[in-house]
Amino acid sequence: MSLAAQHLTVLTGASRGMGLAMARHLLTPDRILLCISRRTTPELEELARLRGATLVQWSMDLSQPSQVAVRLDAWLDAQPTADIASATLINNAGMIPRIGPIDQCPGNELEDALRVGLEAPMQLTAAFLRATGHWITAGWRGPRKVLNISSGLGRHAMAAQAPYCAAKAGLDHFTRCSALDEAQREHGARLVSLAPGVIDTEMQEQLRGGDPAAFPDRERFVDLQRQGQLTSPEEAAARVLGWLQRPDFGDQPVADVRE
To answer: Are 229 and 198 in contact (CB under 8 A)?
Structure first.
């Protein structure tokens, strides 16, 4: 490993909300940051230039996750491992389809919610572990981490939110299972599915704008904003990235940043 080795981080959903805030935090000269989102962000390009940071942005649709995974596998396989100090994947992207009972959710929205929220993290994690596993076979010994951004709704049922809750519950259990697999491997990766708290994002706006007749918990989200209980994306990003640096990262594969 060279003296100028950089940390490598892959981040999905980096174009808005907490993902954009995390990308801002991660743009440092000692890091290679790959952002995968539906659209690229000129703000990040300019910030990378000002900070002398290495930024790669892919405009890709995570509702077609196998295509993204194939590209990620090839990109990681081409990295010069002698110049990499650590490798981290942050699966942050997610989406809420139409709010209401499952029979009122259009099939294409249900499909996209599950693909973006669950299949994409699984496909990208598989690609990340496979490619960096080849690095391990070749003698690389840096730490590898996978951070999946979950939600309290993956652990507590809510009416009118079946697709989102199911995706996050699946994300939690997938993380548990993969953590068990990696624990059996020499130099295995560390995985955590982390609930980041309640954040003031477009997703919260979507929930507050739900039809009260179809969404009985709507007032709860209205009250969270009214009472000032929402965390800013910037603060949430700092807390989530701080969790990544904990020495016990991965000891508890399913966690809450408020713990």
So the answer is: yes
Q: Report pTM.
A: 0.94
Give the number of other Cβ atoms within 10 Å of residue 209's Cβ: 12
Tokens 């890709």 belong to which residue? 60
Distance CA 82, CA 162 (A): 45
pLDDT in tens, 62-105: 999 999 999 999 999 999 999 999 999 999 999 999 999 999 99
Nearby residues of 179 by Cβ (< 8 Å), 6 or more positions away: 190, 191, 250, 253
d(CA 27, CA 201): 21
- State the Cα–Cα distance between residues 88 and 187, nearest whole angstrom: 14
pLDDT at 232: 92
The SS3 assignment for 98 reads coil
Q: Which residue has the tokens 């594969």?
A: 253
The residues, any chain, with a CB within 8 Å of residue 154's CB and separated by 6 or more, are 165, 167, 168, 169, 170, 171, 172, 193, 195
Q: Which of 216, 101, 199, 201 is nearest to 152 (CA)?
A: 199
Structure tokens at 253: 């594969």
Q: What is the pLDDT of residues 157-200, one digit of tens each?
A: 989 999 999 999 999 999 999 999 999 999 999 999 999 998 88
pLDDT in tens, 203-245: 767 778 777 766 887 878 767 778 877 789 999 999 999 999 9
